[in-house]
Amino acid sequence: MTAVQFIPGSSVAEYLSLVRRKNPLIHCVTNEVVQEITANVLLAAGASPAMVVGEGEAEDFVGICDGLSINVGTPFSMRVQIMKAAARKARELGKPWILDPVAAGALVWRDKIIFELMRTGPDVIRGNASEIKFLAGQGSGGKGVDSMDSSDSALQAAVELAEHYSSIVVVTGRTDYITDGTTTYSAEGGNPLITKVVGTGCSLSTLIAAFISSTDSKLEAAAACCAYVKKASEKAASDSKGPGSFHAAYLDALYNLKPEDFNA
Amino acid sequence: MTAVQFIPGSSVAEYLSLVRRKNPLIHCVTNEVVQEITANVLLAAGASPAMVVGEGEAEDFVGICDGLSINVGTPFSMRVQIMKAAARKARELGKPWILDPVAAGALVWRDKIIFELMRTGPDVIRGNASEIKFLAGQGSGGKGVDSMDSSDSALQAAVELAEHYSSIVVVTGRTDYITDGTTTYSAEGGNPLITKVVGTGCSLSTLIAAFISSTDSKLEAAAACCAYVKKASEKAASDSKGPGSFHAAYLDALYNLKPEDFNA
Amino acid sequence: MTAVQFIPGSSVAEYLSLVRRKNPLIHCVTNEVVQEITANVLLAAGASPAMVVGEGEAEDFVGICDGLSINVGTPFSMRVQIMKAAARKARELGKPWILDPVAAGALVWRDKIIFELMRTGPDVIRGNASEIKFLAGQGSGGKGVDSMDSSDSALQAAVELAEHYSSIVVVTGRTDYITDGTTTYSAEGGNPLITKVVGTGCSLSTLIAAFISSTDSKLEAAAACCAYVKKASEKAASDSKGPGSFHAAYLDALYNLKPEDFNA
Questions:
Q1: Does the entry feature the keyword Transferase, yes or no (chains A, B, C) (predicted)?
Q2: How would DSSP label each residue in A107-158?
Q3: Domain B4-230: what homologous superfamily?
Q4: Which CATH superfamily is domain C4-227 in?
């Protein structure tokens, strides 16, 4: 069994401070549905979003950005070529990049795309329990984007996946686990209302790109990001009456939370 | 003249309960503008959205989903091929699907696409008065997406269209009419502020897909969906100060309304 | 040094009244990220949005719309062809159109697209200081979409650009400048929180299209639009707790502000 440690509040404070100070520019090749919330989450947290998907510029922009986020939520051939080219370039230039393997295991065509991207060496893979278990060769994947499994059930799969791909793996759910195969952190809290707002998971992946682009301690930074989002989710739930007001309150909370709020 | 009956509150309660219990997975091939609100409306109501548009997976996903929603708000050739293939597959597999013929009558190229999709046998066609009248061979269509006509003026066109295509036709406006050509329901109420929020009409169509995917009584389910949305719109208007706060309050209302709220 | 005059409140009232009365239909070929907020800003202000990007209809729709807005935030080849065709058609038919040269100077491929569009004769070019300075041959452009420079530093560049292209140039920032090379207006106020909400700049460009489509006094109308948005931004900031609630409050303010609110 893997030993799991909480990410301490002092680490959350430290890595959130770095994001606020460095204002990393994140190259987002994400799905059609979540582009606006993804940009707004980055802005609220203190990073800068840029969605660059043109045939003549998506690769070049890897050289300009601080980190890259790739999300296969709505893949189509033209966009998949951009994803692959950007991922290869990130690898070549040593820029950190994260893969969000949305709905892995549900559709054969998509799974091939996901596995090809995984072989291009993402620094972080972030998924829900169904996705991570499928990628680790367990289970059969989710029904669309909904996870059927608790994150606890995917912890061992996350560790194995991290070892196999020499990558950080983040499996999110009621508890988030963040592992590099050797060290495993957890982040707890949050509120289930967040699952009723589209793009909160996808934008978390992109926000992790901002956190890992601001430091060399990528595992701790990814875990800090998860804890920060859990706290924002709790705050938002206490300020809202349903998923519509939650969405606004969540962005407000990401914006208003300060590093010192985690030092208590 | 067609006899029109109100959809009773007990039916709204019944079909909303079914959506909440069955949590139908809806395959959305919709326009670029409304993807986020469409997903959020489905989530708030108790269904699951999936936007799947890839060349290698959109057809396959018809076999996985519970219902399909096609919206031609921003058609372009590549996406139109996906719409046609998904619609044909839905027909082949007997999966329910709905067509939202946005701006029918305004542009010749789009009209050809719409008529081809209509010949693929949608279970439901949902439009505003201008669109429905144009499709029934009356009037000249709308200026863009705005309806020039009241829904009352399109009732007869809706009935004829339903008969001609053996489809359910929903024409929305101040009063919504839901007809299969023989039986016609109406849903009243709502608030005009909803017309100042983009995607509320488009997402209603997709929500109807969720309702009709949960039962064999598709006509009653479609009418129940309209009445549920009217009520959420009224509640949202009373909780908001303009279209921005309405948007959030509308999602909150869809989420918070319970079947028993319609049994009174 | 260019003489600068404030746009008077009576002009803001006048041009806002025209938009509310004429309800101009704006053809938006904009970026993937901001489509929803763009449509909602137009609706809240009293205009009508239409996103038409199909190969067989984007040009034809120029003949139907009252004005065209082109934004190169997320260009890709297929969409760039649509932009060029729509811009040429607008020029041919004498329909007003605006160009938002997002991130000009950051990427060579995009810059070529921008300069080709500029040669097609936009009525208005709207950018931040970095973009306008780059287009005028000064500076090196911005890091992604963030402006590095204050709008004051770009005033001279805006005037020169306006003269060179016989176009109105709007450079936005803490102070907005609106110039045709001879007469220059300014609009002041606003709130920096608006920079934390994606699409507020892009949707301002599209809203300027609505204002200039409602009158022949395009310079004054563009300036009036900027002043209206500054006021809505101030109102929204006073009603919100962060960027999430600002977004909703901003749309509410655009909707609730009346022409007479500017006559005081």
A1: yes
A2: -HHHHHHHHHHHTT--SEEEEEHHHHHHHTT-S---BTTB--S-GGGGHHHH
A3: Ribokinase (3.40.1190.20)
A4: Ribokinase (3.40.1190.20)
Domain coordinates in residue numbering, chain C: 4-227
Interface of A with B in 55-74 (CB under 8 A): 73-74
Asked if A35 reaches chain C (Cβ–Cβ under 8 Å), the answer is yes
Which pair of structure tokens corresponds to residue B146?
């705005």
Strands in chain C per DSSP E: 4-6, 25-29, 48-50, 67-71, 97-100, 124-128, 168-172, 176-179, 184-187
For B162-215, write each residue's pLDDT tens digit. Answer: 999 999 999 999 999 999 999 999 999 999 999 999 999 999 999 999 999 999
- Biggest alpha carbon–alpha carbon distance for chain C: 48
Q: How far apart are CA A258 and CA B35, in angstroms?
A: 32
Residues B202-245 have pLDDT tens digits of: 999 999 999 999 999 999 999 999 999 999 999 999 999 999 99
Tell which of C57, C200, C202, C238 to mutate to test the B interface (max B CBs under 10 Å): C57
Torsion of the alpha carbons at B164, B167, B172 and B177, rounded to the nearest 10: 80
Our CA dihedral for C242, C243, C244, C246, rounded to 10 degrees, sits at 90
CATH number for the domain whose boundaries are A4-256: 3.40.1190.20
* DSSP state for residue B143 in the 8-state scheme: B
Chain A contact partners (≥3 CB pairs within 8 A): B, C
Q: Is A81 on the interface with C (CB under 8 A)?
A: no
**Spatial contact of B208 and B28, defined as CB atoms under 8 Å apart:** no
Rounded Cα distance, A185 and A64, in Å: 31
Mention every residue, 6+ apart, whose C-beta is less than 8 A from residue C87.
C68, C70, C97, C99, C117, C120, C122
DSSP H or E segment with residue A49? strand A48-50
Question: Which ipTM score applies to this complex?
Answer: 0.96
